[in-house]
Write a structure and sequence with these properties.
By secondary structure, the protein is α/β, with parallel strands linked by helices. The chain has five helices and ten strands. The strands form two sheets. Strands 3-2-1-4-5-6-10-8 form an eight-stranded mixed β-sheet, sandwiched between helices. It is globular, with a radius of gyration of 16 Å. InterPro entries: NAD(P)-bd_dom, NAD(P)-bd_dom_sf.
Amino acid sequence: MARVLIIGASRGIGLEAVRQALDAGHKVRAFARSAGRIDLSHPALEKVNGDALASADVAAAAKGVDAIIQVLGVGAGQLFRPVRLFSDATRILVAAMAAVGVRRLIAVTGYGAGESRSSMSLLQRVPFQVLLGRAYDDKDVQERLIRASPLDWTIVRPGALTNGPRTGRYRVLVDPATWRYGVISRADVADFLVKQIEDRSLLRQAPVLA
């Protein structure tokens, strides 16, 4: 049993990770601006309202945990303006983890972040850059910040997300030669994240999930 902080816990992959971490027997601190409205009740669940861009909130939430899962997202309306959420929040988180002595970080970015963008075909890359370029430019910075840190990190790059069920049938693509754009449910991404809490075989790696 681990004590886990999940940042971005109120919806999507983050909320799925809360559910699955509890099912796996972990103690979960669910952190989000609307954490109090999470419709879950469990004796091992602590809901913490906070802002991922507020240093004091993040530092307080990080105290006393064994691992942190970071799942951040922006709304569609923010994609056509400069995006800094991913890098700014990660800067704050890395500093907070260093201050309180937490080393294990599992961070979700996405296929197309970092060097995985070079594995896209030209037909994929052009619409990707038009629609998601600003967000993924900032995710590139986010990944660089994590890689430069002394943390025990794993970066997770899922492909296109669906609301399908947890199946456990997905591929973890570590070798860049195998990277491809695929489809995966949020529940299956959460399955992978929760497994990484105790599985250290992918430390300092950035697999693509499909």
